[in-house]
């Protein structure tokens, strides 16, 4: 089973200007949705204006 890619999601929460989250998801949209669910579960959400940036993080093998 292939491993889902990593995504770095930049977003804002009430009381915080910028937060970074790194999650595994199949797509950028799924990554934002996963971050939203996690923040709501932790009682810190909802995100303000959804995500401001979503970027795939390229992993490298340990040397």
Question: How would you portray this structure in words?
Answer:
The protein has about 60 residues and is of the alpha+beta class. Helices cover about 20% and strands about 45% of the residues. The protein has 1 helix and 3 strands, in the order ββαβ. The chain is elongated, with a radius of gyration of 12 Å.
Task: Identify the notable features of this structure and list them briefly.
alpha+beta, 63 residues, three-stranded antiparallel beta sheet
Helix content: 10-25%
Helix segment count? 1
Largest sheet: 3 strands, antiparallel
> In percent, how much strand structure appears in the residues?
35-45%
- Rounded mean pLDDT score: 87
Overall strand count: 3
Radius of gyration: 12 Å
Structural class: alpha+beta
Shape: elongated
Order of helices and strands: EEHE
Span from first to last CA? 24 Å
State the assembly state of the protein chains. single chain
Low-pLDDT regions: none
Any chance you could write out the topology, listing elements then pairs?
Elements: E1 6-13, E2 16-24, H1 28-41, E3 48-57
Antiparallel strand pairs: 1-2, 1-3
Précis, in short:
The chain is an alpha+beta fold. It contains 1 helix and 3 strands.
């Amino acid at each position: 089973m292939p491993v889902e890619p990593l995504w770095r999601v930049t977003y804002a929460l009430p009381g915080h200007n910028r937060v970074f989250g790194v999650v595994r998801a199949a797509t950028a949209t799924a990554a934002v949705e996963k971050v939203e669910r996690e923040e709501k579960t932790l009682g810190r959400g909802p995100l303000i204006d959804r995500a401001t940036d979503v970027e795939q993080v390229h992993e490298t093998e340990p040397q």
